[in-house]
Amino acid sequence: MTLIAVGLTLLGAVCFAAASVLQHHAVTTTEHPDARDRVEPSPTTASVVEPVRHLNGRHLLAIVRRRRWLQGAGLAGAGSLVHAVALLLAPLRVVQPVGVLAVPLAVLMSAWKSRTMPSRGVLVGAALTVAGVVVFVAASAGSATTATPSAGATLTAGIVIGATVALLGFAGMARQGRGPLRCLALAGAVAAAYGLLSALVRVAAQAAATEGVLSPFVLGCVAGALVAFLVGAWLVQHAFHAGAPEIVIACLTVGDPLVAVVLGAVLLGEGSTTPIGAWVLLGAAAVTATAGVFTLAHHHPDAVAARAGQEQIVART
């Protein structure tokens, strides 16, 4: 069952990587409806005309009508479906981190789309991210056990993660324009939401086996998972607007497993048989993967271009 779950997760990673590239293209190339009502800047006023900095309801509605966005949504839905099946077959600590393969896949797909070779910094960041999560999987797979959590513990975990999502989401939305920091904050919020989603799916599956599918606990987990999905789906569009798909997918494949593993340990007892040495290795792997995400964000062409633009502005003033 574990091998089947890993295979399904790999298939999901391919779907998620392709979906991120398609939806990022749709988000960043769709004209903002407000822009049609604005006067085209002249050479004398171009420097003071501010671009539209945030997605609003009208812009999002225009985006979701795009063919590429709908194709990406379909792939993301297919990836979510096979990922959910994988969660029913194996523990969170085994399934979640395998999705890290979406990172190099997104890098390769973006490079193929732009017909450019990724820079050394981008490749190093992707490699660190993949290596960190691969070690994370290897260290956690051998000692994962599962138990059914209580409703109180599940509710507490949901409140804590929900507050984290709100904090990161507010930090990202408070910043303006495109940039790696805003992208990281928004993608981090999405990762926390999706990590909670995965944990609730696993908890609901465990509880359904003992309490029944229509028990209040199971229905509450399903409702919480639906809210986490909708919040994450909304925030990820803003993350695509703020930065590159590789950065977004890297944050998701690192933050999502970290949240899921912590919740798995706290709620499901999946860390009860893990020795101290394995926890140290897990921590080092998590730090390595996180460093890879920040390296990828720093060296991505979008971030390099943004810094160059800021330097030109400073030089002119």
Automatic annotation (TrEMBL):
Q: What is this protein called?
A: Integral membrane protein
| Source domain of life | Bacteria
- Provide the alphabetized UniProt keywords: Membrane, Signal, Transmembrane, Transmembrane helix
Q: Which PANTHER family match?
A: CONSERVED INTEGRAL MEMBRANE ALANINE VALINE AND LEUCINE RICH PROTEIN-RELATED
Give the range the annotation lists for the signal sequence. 1-26
Looking at the UniProt entry, the stretches that span the membrane are 84-109, 121-139, 151-171, 183-205, 217-236, 248-270, 276-297
